[in-house]
Amino acid sequence: MHTELTTAIGTAVARVEKLTKSYGTGPGRVDALAGVSIGLERGRFTAIMGPSGSGKSTLMHMMAGLDSPSSGRVWLGDTDITALGDSQLTLLRRRRVGFVFQSFNLVPTLDILGNIRLPFELDGRRPSRDEAAWIDRLIDSLGLRDRLGHRPFELSGGQQQRVAIARALGTQPDLVFADEPTGNLDSRSGREVLSLLATASSEFGQSIAMVTHDPIAASYADRIVFLADGVVADDRPRSTPEQISSLMLALERHP
Amino acid sequence: MRPALSREQFPTILVAALSSSFGVALLEVTQALTLLVSRDDVTGSSHTVAALLSVLAVVFTAIAVYVAAVVTVNTIATIVAGRTRTIALYRLVGASSRTLRRSVAREGLAAGAVGSAIGAVVGAGVVAGGLAFAVRGRVIPALPYSPWHAVVVLPVVAVVLTTWLAAWIGSRRVLAVSPLEAISAAEERTLGETAARPARTATAITLFSLGTLLLVAGILLGLVSGLGVLVGLGGGILSFSGVVIGAQLVMPRALRLVAYAFGRSAAARLAGQNALRYPERSTRTTIGLVIGVTLVTMFAVAIGGFEAMVQAARAAQPETYQGIQPTLDATVAVFSVLTGYSALIAAVGLVATLSLSVLQRTRELGLLRALGFSARQVRFMIVVESAQLTSAAVLVGVVLGTGYGWAGAQSLLGSIAGAPGLIVPVLPVAVLATIAGAAAALTVGASLVPARRATRVSPVAALAIE
Asked: Which residues form the ABC transporter domain (chain A) (predicted)?
């Protein structure tokens, strides 16, 4: 079931076509991605799942312009980013993409407000009035109001992830990438972070792509793409953790 | 923990080699000069000259070795900070923190021994070569000179021991590493490393105030007697000790002041924050350079003051002050080289610390790249960081050096025949320009390699580093 056929180009916020990535050459060559074609719908929360080594992180890095593919193409909106040079990719990441990583998300020397505003500072501009109002709203809804002057190390892991979410949503990017955003959190903080991401998508129409291997995390998404051995193995609409778990187990058993 | 010398120890070896070659070379030159003056000892003063030369050699070697030790404490502390996770892992599997600290100190001892031995050979070689060259050019007569003196063992041993001690002091943080740091997320938790040390602060302020009072007393006494310089010297040593001990109060403020001058762009601001992130480390990184710049400036300003006074006095009594200019020029040159050497050692330390700390921030720089910091912005940030450290050190050094140099000239010559009493401090333009040029070169040199390395890593690879 390949969704690029069902996703019209106009509604895809990002898509990849026949994407491959290999490391090394000769007999020691490893194919992290062996021809992946998918599209992500605008305004939706998509989970990319798969066991370790399935190529899900590699796929995310390609889509976010952090790494370049061996062959194939990547579009963000209407931009073919495979053709872009380093400085254009830098601008693209700064303006059109947001990131939430598993850990080490925040710049240790900046306080919370400084971290949230960092993408604007990198652009050498102040947030516009609308953007400032939006950031204010994010700060309140993420419960960070009384933490703005703190440094990252003074916050719990869950709070740090909320700051990363505020920063990622602050620029209203085309697409937010979340790489195992709950991997370092206890289950309660993890659920909170996942609800926040789901809300950002359902209420504000934010497109989100989340890489995870946790079935519970994936159950918060509108759609789940399964990767195994560098190819798309399955593609499902919203599912329960139980359904996702059994699919994952099946993937592990019949590679 | 790592018995072999790793590449991280290269700065320590280099600094040890620099200071030991300096000490050995100075002693060799002293020996040669002593031989030279005793050959035609008509005035019978060769013993005094020899003693004076030895004192000078010891004083300047001590300064170089001290600066080298400060530099090494800092390098080792930076290395230890970068190894936190490895140390924690060793603690996790049962190594005691004392054993680990001892092994870091042993690495320092090994680096000090290797560096000091290299330095001894280089120092003796350079002097022997220089003498042979001078003899061949008939600048000096052939001397019954041999580079093998028992006395050159002293600086070599002193460098090994101080490097060992410096490594021991620099490895203090090993004790504070908890085994948990090996398994928890590697977030920065050592912010605010500086604990308030009231006793240290009090000592620093007392020494500085007392020294400043003595300096003023020396200047006033200098108006009536040349002996004022002795009082002033005591005051200078006391107050400068106060500055070095209390550097943690001075340097972060100077850094903050300098940071404002570099603008408010995101890159410049982050650079300023980085320089202030570990106040203790930045202080140690810069204090060596402060000492070097202070000494160079001090001698230059003192000589400038001499000249101004002598010129004023010469205008009043021309016959008394004939032919003094070449002597003054030569003195400036010799002292600039002697003190400049300590500044060089400090500069090596600054380069090493900055490179190491950039290397340790690979992951953070990867995050910035992922978030849209361009490679250029990252490079700019590292250059600014380096520029802030050197500027702060030069600023403080020039201010202190001007004060001490002026006080020295004033207290020594305030009472000479025809002197105008109090003079305005004279900042010699040539020396200031040299210091500024060297500082600029240092800034670029210290940041070029780490900046290139930092932007060569792809953001993905940088983020994956533990």
From this structure: 14-254
Q: Which of residues 11-40 of B touch A (CB under 8 A)?
A: none
Domain C-terminal end among B121, B153, B181: B181
Q: Which of residues 4-43 of A touch B (CB under 8 A)?
A: none
How confident is the model over B168-213, as pLDDT tens digits? 988 988 888 877 776 654 444 444 444 567 888 899 999 999 999 9
Given the DSSP bridges, would you call strands A45-49 and A208-212 parallel, antiparallel or unpaired?
parallel
Gap from B450 CA to chain A (nearest CA, Å)? 19
Nearest CA in chain A to B377: A122
Range of the domain at B156: 1-181
Does residue B246 share a domain with residue B293? Answer: yes
Among candidates B188, B368, B459 on the partner chain, residue whose Cβ is nearest the Cβ of A66: B459
Q: Which two tokens stand for residue A46?
A: 């998509």
Taking the C-alpha atoms of residue B279 and residue B272, their distance in angstroms, rounded to an integer, is: 11
Reported residue count of chain A is 255
Kindly state whether residues B140 and B205 are assigned to the same domain. no
Domain that holds residue A149: 41-65+84-253
Alpha helices by DSSP H, listed for chain A, are 56-63, 86-96, 112-122, 129-141, 157-170, 187-204, 215-218, 241-253
Indicate whether this complex's ipTM tops 0.95.
no
Q: Is A15 helix (H, G, I), strand (E, B) or coil?
A: strand
- Tell me the one-letter amino acid at A51: P
Q: Which residue has the tokens 């490679």?
A: B375
CA distance B141 to B144: 10
Shared domain for B445 and B398, answered yes or no, is: yes
Q: Minimal Cα distance from A89: which residue of B? A: B372
B363 contacts in chain A (CB < 8 Å) = 104
Which uninterrupted H or E stretch holds A100? strand A97-100
User: Inter-chain contact A122–B460, Cβ cutoff 8 Å?
Assistant: no
Task: Give A-chain residues touching B381 at CB under 8 angstroms.
Answer: none
Q: Is the pLDDT of residue A106 over 90?
A: no
Please name the member of A107, A153, A157 whose beta carbon is closest to the beta carbon of B189.
A153
Is B218 found in the same domain as B96? no
